[in-house]
Every structure is written in C-alpha cells, then in structure tokens.
C-alpha cells in the first residue's frame, strides 16, 4: 500500500462544520480500494479522543507552543487517525475555530502547531509508518506545504473555500515558526498580513479544488477574493476534482429515516412527501421544494423572498431547514408567517430530518452566489429531489439544466439558472412548475437523476493518479 498523510482541521464523524469534514472523512475509505493507505491528522478538540478506538500515544513533546502535547493514534471506522492532543490549544468550549461567533485569538498558534507536527511526522515518520506524500486542506493546514517546501516530500493542498484565507498580523511570524524572509510577495505575505492559505498555494507541488468549474472561477477576481493572481501563477499545477458523497449513508433504497424507494419504484417517495408536508404543516398542490442550508448571503438566501411569490401562486411550496445570519433566519420565518400552509421553516440543523426532506421533497433549492462543489445538490440527485441551482462552481458541473436541447436528448436532471439574481431564480422556479405539471416528463427526470453516480470512486481515482505523478516526479 502506498502511504499518504492527510492533514485537516475537521473530519467526519469526529468534528464537522462543513463539507471539508465530509471529504476528509470519505477519502481514506475511497482510496483504500485503490492501493492507498491514508492516515488523517486532526486536532484533538474536546471529545475527539473519546471517539477514537484503541488509541495510544505515538509522539510526545514537552513544549508545543507553551505546554506538553502528544499525538494519539487510534481508529475511527477503518481509518487510522492521528489526533494532536494539546489541551491548551484544542480542549475548549465552542467550535473548532471560534466560540459564540468570535474567533479564538490564538488560532495562528493553534493551527501552526498542527502544521508543525504534521511536517515532523512527514519528515521522520511515526511508529514505523512514513508517508510518501502529504495532502493538506484549506488555510488551517496551509503551512504544512510551506514547512516542507525544501524537504523533497511532495505535497498537495485542496482549496475547499477560498473565502477563508487564514489571515493573521505580521507580528505573528515568529509565533508561527516563520522567518522575516518568508514575509514577501512570493511567500506568506498577503496585503500586509500573513495568509496561511497563500503559503500553501505558493509552496505545494499541486493545488486541487473541489470541482473543475471552481478551479476556473478562482482565476477571476469575483471568485478568487484577492488570491486570483496566485491561482493564475500556479495554473499548470491546478486540478479540479469533484467531491463525492457516501452512497451507503445516502441511499434511498435502504435509508432508515424514510420510506424506501428507488428509480424503478417511486411509491415510497410519494409517501415521504405526504409525511414531510405533515411535519412542516403544509398543504401543497404543486412541487414541494426544500432548502437545507446555512442561511447566509453566500448561499443566496436573500434572493428567495423576492423570487418565490409567483412559484407559491402557481401551487408550489417550500420547506426550510437551516440556521445562520439573523437577518436570513428572520426572512425565512417571515415567509412562513406570510404563507401559512405553503412555507414551513425549522431553524437549526437535524441530520435525520434532512434525510426525510430529501426523501419527500420534489426539488432542492441551491441559489448560491459561489459554491466550490456543493453536496446538497448531489444528495438531491440521489433522492430524486431535483436541484434548482445557480450556474456556479460544482453546481454547474453536476446538474444538467432542463432546456429544449437537454430535454430532447433525455439528459436533463434539474434546473440551472443564470445570472445569480432574484429574477433568474424566479424564472427557474416557474420552469420547475412547468416541468412538474408534465408528469411523464417529471418522472423521467427523477429517474434519470437517481441513476447518476456521484460516489467517491471516480474522484478517488483522480487523487490517486495525482499522488502517483507527484511521487514519481519527486524521485
């Protein structure tokens, strides 16, 4: 087995704030069948060590950023996890990066420590195991490629969302084990600050993003968010590799949270819709759309209220599950008040409820202004809950919009709208109604969507091929 170390700030099922955790948790299993042994290093946040099986200390330090630390090796499922146990850095209330919406003041040191130990493991190995390549994820681990840039060990960094850049004051250089010479245009300097994401982009042997379209988008200012010049500089080393989903967890034929159904028999889906309407106190004659999302500007939540009235007037309905910005939560709750029986809202997140919503919904709305890959639309396709998506990033890469050409070719799997504004979303929703009214065409689209394969096998194969190339080039 070839050996790869994955370094990340979160991983399903140990800790999750977004899609990054899903990818980090899924890749080891997907790669195992292709001859790769991937071990994952993450911080030992509060509660993480309790979830590791047969854990043991494989590395110790008397002083890691001010206090003792150790690296605990254990297993989650079939994956070997290296959890950096440094209570002074990670054992605290709140999320991985903040508490009550306020970032931890020592995030620079917390994630520099993770990167430092990961680089040491890459150089020296651990407990008889030494990786041939290191895969870093997002800003939290951007310093890993930087620390390893002269080691001869190949590195990859994946950009899951370029909006988060790991920016810290120049005064943090020494605390992050960086030298004054590193603080330059071709180094970690970014508009007068340190950017750990830029450090990774400059130093890694290869850069991946989580969809081909997002890779292209990042070269433009509207999506690159100040780092487009760096992406352009590294364009030859840039690879867009779509995320996948866990098709064992997301499988409508065996999902314990719903009445099972398949592309060959949709009876269970009809029962799920009736149950979902009851759960949200809805009575909808037309298509029932769902929204499962962080309620933020990036997700296009502000577009929904001005776009949805014609859809509701045509008999459509909307069930919402999510939380986020107060204005967005208030906007969704206001819709439910204004349109009782047609709009239902639950603030928060409930994993089993999300399964019931995909199982019973006719369509899932994803009106994001930018979306590196997106998993929501993939779950929708898997469950015959047709996506209505903006033509950005991974949404455009995975949903085939209904048009005269795609309908004639029997290829359409959803509705794609452009530009990303309320008028385009409104027209997309009215197109959804028209599609729904042609029942034979609708059922054909649902079956087609469900037959798409968005598992991890293809993507893992691309990662494996990239690792092979980088290792060969380093020899």
Automatic annotation (TrEMBL):
Pathway: Glycan biosynthesis; glycogen biosynthesis
Gene3D superfamilies: Glycogen Phosphorylase B
Domain Glycosyl transferase family: 278-444
Residue intervals of the Starch synthase catalytic domain: 3-232
EC number: 2.4.1.21
Catalysed reactions listed for this entry: [(1->4)-alpha-D-glucosyl](n) + ADP-alpha-D-glucose = [(1->4)-alpha-D-glucosyl](n+1) + ADP + H(+)
Gene Ontology molecular functions: alpha-1,4-glucan glucosyltransferase (ADP-glucose donor) activity
Sorted UniProt keywords: Glycogen biosynthesis, Glycosyltransferase, Transferase
Source taxon at top rank: Bacteria
Residue sites binding ADP-alpha-D-glucose per the record: 16
Family that this chain belongs to: Belongs to the glycosyltransferase 1 family. Bacterial/plant glycogen synthase subfamily.
Known function: Synthesizes alpha-1,4-glucan chains using ADP-glucose.
UniProt-recorded name of the protein: Glycogen synthase
Source organism (scientific name): Thioclava arctica
